[in-house]
Amino acid sequence: MIRSIVSTAVAGLAGFTATKAVLRSRLRTHESVVRTNHAGHDVSLAEGPAVATGLLAGSLLIEDPRQRTATLLATAAAGSLGAVDDFCESGSSKGLRGHLSALARGEITTGTIKVTGIPLASIAAAAILRSRTRPAGFFGFSQKEDRPWFAAAADVIVTGGVIAGSANLFNLLDLRPGRALKAGALTLAFTDHDRRVSWAPAGAIAGVTAAAWPDDLAGDAMLGDTGANALGAAIGVILAETATPAQRRLILAVLAGLTLASEKVSFTSVIESTPGLREIDSFGREVV
């Protein structure tokens, strides 16, 4: 177990470091990777692709084939679609409501592609996670499943919702230096790791988080949609694998509630006005 954790952590850190070095050498000041943050400072989006690549590099070493495939699919899709929104953004719609409203008007924006593509990829990843050794039935479930196909299909949809909802939530949190990385670390710390399937992917996330931490906390770089969506999707797969069906439904309900709340309430305002959360959020941050 320790060996698998170390190997995925090292692979994640190495993938992040190599990708960021290449991007910085070629796109150091290119306008496509520079954004203005909440404090009015220029920050680099190069961290996002580096995070996604590091997560994929670490995920390649996950031993369980189903979890490896599902993690690679969910992370790659979330990161790639996030990159489309980061670097090829079209339309002025913001937030889930804005993107869905644009879609209702027949307007296909990069954000619309992301909010429809990530859930579809997440459901596909969920079908892989919930599959068995001899898939033959609906949604890839074995005919030996001891529950009706519709119950199995519902669990796939809930699992996909957990993965997609997690990807979206981490994107919503990426509004201050270090916030999304801290949320990821805390989520892993409080995850039930009794099942061995969580350790290797958690190692990859830990390695990438350690590599991204200094520049992110300093406000020199940010995850962007690319990194935040990829990080959230990878964590979503872990939550889906370690939780019971009832727990997955609860997690999905919480994620859905937070997503809907974000349309009306500022997470930053809530965090900054809540003792405990405020201190955790500001810890180590050089740019306020």
List the defining traits of the structure above.
2 strands; 288 residues; 12 helices; single chain; two-stranded antiparallel sheet; 68% helix; mainly alpha
Q: Mind explaining what this structure looks like?
A:
The chain is mainly alpha-helical and 288 residues long. The protein is built from twelve helices and two strands. The protein has helices spanning 2-27, 47-59, 65-87, 95-104, 110-129, 149-173, 179-189, 199-218, 224-242, 245-262, 267-272, 277-282; strands at 34-36, 42-44. Strands 1-2 form a two-stranded antiparallel ribbon. Helix 6 packs antiparallel against helix 9, helix 7 packs antiparallel against helix 8 (199-218) and helix 7 (179-189) packs parallel to helix 9 (224-242). The radius of gyration is 18 Å and the shape is globular. The termini are far apart.
What is the topological layout?
Layout lengths: L1 H26 L6 E3 L5 E3 L2 H13 L5 H23 L7 H10 L5 H20 L19 H25 L5 H11 L9 H20 L5 H19 L2 H18 L4 H6 L4 H6 L6
Antiparallel strand pairs: 1-2
Helix pairs in contact: 1-2, 1-8, 2-3, 2-8, 2-9, 3-5, 3-9, 5-6, 5-9, 6-9, 6-10, 7-8, 7-9
